[in-house]
């Protein structure tokens, strides 16, 4: 088997997660008059990316980081794409998410095309834009230098602008404007940081920076670190730079919101993991990161508890659980880093599943406002089951992966043993309990209570409120639901929920994999020696 994989020249597979979606985007644009061909190309491309990512996960685990230099420039002047255990795992999870969300979007598009007067997602532009988004995410994970990481961010961001405002509704344009302004600000700050790094070190290659930054004065290194961390913290929605997220995500179409919630903030978290471990391993900002993690967890979950709309509740829990990932990063230990990586993989799948479920709730009931919902468990037992499983997983109920991820982080915090680490442990437990409370409230009001107990709206549900995208609306779930649930959308949501459960089943091997990834990140040697020739490392 090893000989077979070696014969395939696995490093040549490294650019495929970027190139295939870009090629697919061009083809789907050329096939804009044939929705069937667009769907076929998009599914085939993303399925191929899943297969490539699976091979890279296996190869990086048995053979170390896979590096491909692009162009004819002498190393390390060219552009390098690097797949190590961390980036390969992120590629695999993100490609599975993008594939399943695409299937959901296709089901939604078919259903809308069959309903007169409904056209929420113009599919002609959706498929190429969505594939460009997938290419940007992959490029960010594989980037071997800061500028290519910036390019990856910009690719996924400009495609996300289009997806966020697709349909042209006033609420989406307003939310898109906020998102664009915040994203441009973080991108400008990131670009300034890249310029400062190059001015101080003469390179933007991550492996080479890991050698040269150690020779800078502590003050200069601290300024560079603050600049990069601030840019990534905005993208990752870390408190106090997280206020934009709950106002931006809930207005988008369900599949767009799901892929945003699952992936976009995690790219920012990935960038923080990469920069902190590779460039600033002995950071003086660990205390600041710990406080940011604690405040992100607590403020985010308090925001979720205070909401009455399902989309906004999930948006605030998304912010809150970013704090768990920063918790692991801030500990700056192999155990903390392993816990953060495992938590990222877990959270991508669960948060995506919950937003897909929310899209189904909105389609079935015509609203996502808890004040106007009731009886969903009777109307759709399958949907109720999917929500219950995902909600318990996010809340950290044993033996699900959310529980295992939190236990790993709490153990790492206890092992550090400082007062601030203990405070984070307590904050993590409180956040988990409040997450359970917030999602139990959703279950109680939207799914469990009877129709007789649910508040009634002055207008009937049938035909109302399905395309608004917000948490408001005037529809309620009455005896005649607003819509049925298309099988394709339900199947994609069930598959996404099943992926979250699969992480529980393979938690042992997966956690061991994240521990090996964390060991590589902490030592830095596997990454640096794989990327740089020996004469450059001296």
Automatic annotation (TrEMBL):
<keyword id="KW-0472">Membrane</keyword>
<dbReference type="InterPro" id="IPR003918">
    <property type="entry name" value="NADH_UbQ_OxRdtase"/>
</dbReference>
<feature type="transmembrane region" description="Helical">
    <location>
        <begin position="340"/>
        <end position="361"/>
    </location>
</feature>
<feature type="transmembrane region" description="Helical">
    <location>
        <begin position="149"/>
        <end position="171"/>
    </location>
</feature>
<feature type="transmembrane region" description="Helical">
    <location>
        <begin position="219"/>
        <end position="239"/>
    </location>
</feature>
<protein>
    <submittedName>
        <fullName>Na+/H+ antiporter subunit D</fullName>
    </submittedName>
</protein>
<feature type="transmembrane region" description="Helical">
    <location>
        <begin position="285"/>
        <end position="306"/>
    </location>
</feature>
<feature type="transmembrane region" description="Helical">
    <location>
        <begin position="13"/>
        <end position="31"/>
    </location>
</feature>
<feature type="transmembrane region" description="Helical">
    <location>
        <begin position="373"/>
        <end position="394"/>
    </location>
</feature>
<feature type="transmembrane region" description="Helical">
    <location>
        <begin position="125"/>
        <end position="143"/>
    </location>
</feature>
<feature type="transmembrane region" description="Helical">
    <location>
        <begin position="490"/>
        <end position="513"/>
    </location>
</feature>
<feature type="transmembrane region" description="Helical">
    <location>
        <begin position="178"/>
        <end position="199"/>
    </location>
</feature>
<comment type="similarity">
    <text>Belongs to the CPA3 antiporters (TC 2.A.63) subunit D family.</text>
</comment>
<dbReference type="Pfam" id="PF00361">
    <property type="entry name" value="Proton_antipo_M"/>
</dbReference>
<feature type="domain" description="NADH:quinone oxidoreductase/Mrp antiporter transmembrane">
    <location>
        <begin position="143"/>
        <end position="428"/>
    </location>
</feature>
<keyword id="KW-0812">Transmembrane</keyword>
<feature type="transmembrane region" description="Helical">
    <location>
        <begin position="313"/>
        <end position="334"/>
    </location>
</feature>
<dbReference type="InterPro" id="IPR050586">
    <property type="entry name" value="CPA3_Na-H_Antiporter_D"/>
</dbReference>
<keyword id="KW-1003">Cell membrane</keyword>
<feature type="transmembrane region" description="Helical">
    <location>
        <begin position="251"/>
        <end position="273"/>
    </location>
</feature>
<keyword id="KW-1133">Transmembrane helix</keyword>
<dbReference type="InterPro" id="IPR001750">
    <property type="entry name" value="ND/Mrp_TM"/>
</dbReference>
<feature type="transmembrane region" description="Helical">
    <location>
        <begin position="414"/>
        <end position="439"/>
    </location>
</feature>
<feature type="transmembrane region" description="Helical">
    <location>
        <begin position="43"/>
        <end position="60"/>
    </location>
</feature>
<feature type="transmembrane region" description="Helical">
    <location>
        <begin position="86"/>
        <end position="105"/>
    </location>
</feature>
